[in-house]
Amino acid sequence: MALFSLLMAILAERLKLLPESWQFDSLQTWLHQRLFAGDDFYSGKVSEFKVLAALLLPALLVYLAISLVEGMVWGLVSLAVWVLVAMVCFSHQEQRSAFKRYIQAACRGDIQACYRHAAELDCSSCLEAVSADELGLKVGQSVAWINYRFYGAVALYLIVLGPVAAVLYCTVRFYDVRQKALQQTTAEFKLPYVDAILTVLDWLPSRLFAFGYVLTGHFHSAFSRWQKLAFNASSSARQIITETATEAETIPAPSAAPVCLQPTLVLLGLSKRNFVLLLALASLLTIFGFIS
Fold this sequence. Notes:
By secondary structure, this protein is mainly alpha-helical. The protein contains twelve helices and no strands. It starts with a helix and ends in a 5-residue tail after the last helix.
């Protein structure tokens, strides 16, 4: 079920089959508004219990749904739930649209628009101090990070632990993204539990996914960097992903264009190869019966 659900989710995401209202961030925003109705959430003055409930409730609902339909109609209803959850977790048209706008702005030579759309793509990355020559590489690293955060990690959790774990990861990521966006204007804003849980959830998947860059890129240089970061407990998931990806490819020198797209496209290609490798490994594990 895991591989079939993953393939259906990828197909739905590529074909944009799910409307925006059915994508994970939209559904989670709807639930968030009801959980925190009447609370001053944006000041950070919310109870720890409510935040923990918000983080765990979506995964709990999925667990209950799967438990209720287990065995119904020879397992077809369970399969439908798996596929639906996977499709919801993998649909992220907002990120795709932001990247498309960035590429279009770069092709026009509109530097200011490039900075704006790059910030929309990855609000956790500080781009203000980055020169136009370095922007292409910085966005390429953001693409590698987003590919892991929105696709790779979700796929790993879906394959290994099922839809409940995938939804839990997506929920914690949702609040992490929201927290970082609010920290742009309110530096002291911080939600309880979010950073700690996400650090735990990212620890192993980030190292596994980064090793895929080693296998799909320049092995020697990428492996040296991966080894140094992966066995360092203080290395962040973002650092492992972006630095391993950068070492795994030969980054072209900046061109004469106002914003050079070559580093971005090179790292985008690497990210695509890495995800194909993940699908191939999932297929082999399914064939040999290691995952169901």
